[in-house]
Design a protein that fits this description.
Layout lengths: L1 E5 L1 H19 L12 H9 L3 E8 L2 E12 L7 E10 L8 H15 L4 E3 L9 H6 L17
Length: 151
């Protein structure tokens, strides 16, 4: 398995099938929340150096992706944070240490890009926080959500 930074432009077509699987597996409220990425915004953020795409490949095949928003913290302007947007490995690549190695690679790559803090969110139905804890991550916040009717 090889891990590398790639541009969204170069991988956007390959990402689509995995993104659909990711959506089907993890999205709650699918009746109200439809998959429709704002690719134009992502590519502009990437152009500005504020969005980073990392990939996992088995040979030429895309096995997974992890993408991050990278920017100075809104409250602490001298502190750079990488906030994970998406992290996904196709099911057939989830055995063994692939996820752990991909997360380690991501941490190093983001640190090399100037990130001083790395933040992940996990879905309750696919909680990979135990893997993150093995890498030294600590729980800091709990997210809750509610669909607003009529909004």
């Amino acid at each position: 398995m090889n891990f590398q930074r790639e541009t969204l432009f170069d991988v956007i077509e390959e990402v689509q099938p995995l993104l659909e699987l990711h959506y089907l597996e993890l999205c709650v409220n699918k009746d109200a929340v439809k998959l429709s990425p704002r690719w134009d915004v992502y590519t502009e953020l990437e152009r500005l150096g504020c969005f980073v795409v990392l990939t996992a490949r088995e040979g030429e095949a895309l096995a997974g992706y992890s993408a991050y928003f990278l920017s100075p913290h809104m409250h602490y302007s001298g502190f750079s944070v990488a906030q994970n947007d998406v992290f996904y490995l196709a099911e057939e690549y989830r055995r063994g240490t692939t996820a752990l190695r991909f997360l380690r690679y991501s941490e190093t790559a983001l640190k090399d890009l100037g990130a001083q803090k790395l933040v992940y969110h996990c879905k309750p139905q696919n909680n990979f926080a135990p893997i993150l804890h093995r890498l030294g991550f600590k729980d800091e916040e709990v997210m809750t959500a509610k669909l607003l009717q009529g909004a």
